[in-house]
Amino acid sequence: QVQLVESGGGLVQAGGSLRLSCVASGRIFSINDMGWYRQAPGKQRELVAHITTGGGTNYADSVKGRFAISRLRVNNDNTVYLQMNSLKPEDTAVYYCNRVPNLDDWGQGTQVTVSS
């Protein structure tokens, strides 16, 4: 059984920072790449940050240089973090974590709202 629980979102002014956390329970997350995805109103869900099992990272061009993904693995539990700096109004979305490529099951996500 797998479970994804995201937290850390909120309302922040442009230029501010937030740190998102995701507890991903299940061995499938321990042995695979993980990512942070986001879905803005009226848009498709997109992958914005990706971390490999070896710790390598990749970012969407829109967040490169501003976001940083990291992970902590303890047995079959993973905590995946997303440090978001220099936030922009266009970063407003619901943020989710999942395996890369994603599983069909998603958590509830965490809302990030950036005001101008």
Shape: globular
Low-confidence stretches: none
Structural class: mainly beta
Main sheet record: 6 strands, mixed
Gyration radius from CA atoms, angstroms: 13 Å
Helix-strand pattern: EEEHEEEEEEE
DSSP strand content: over 45%
**Strand tally, please?**
10
Percent range of helical residues: under 10%
- Strand arrangement within the widest β-sheet reads 2-10-9-4-5-6
Terminus-to-terminus distance: 41 Å
The average pLDDT score comes to 95
Count of alpha and pi helical runs? 1
Task: Tell me what the structure shows.
There is one protein chain. The chain has 116 residues and is mainly beta. Helices cover 3% and strands 54% of the residues. It is built from one helix and ten strands, in the order E-E-E-H-E-E-E-E-E-E-E. The protein has one helix at 27-30; strands at residues 3-7, 10-13, 18-25, 33-39, 46-51, 57-59, 67-74, 77-84, 93-100, 110-115. The strands form two sheets. A six-stranded mixed beta sheet has the order 2-10-9-4-5-6. A four-stranded antiparallel beta sheet has the order 1-3-8-7. It is globular and about 40 Å long.
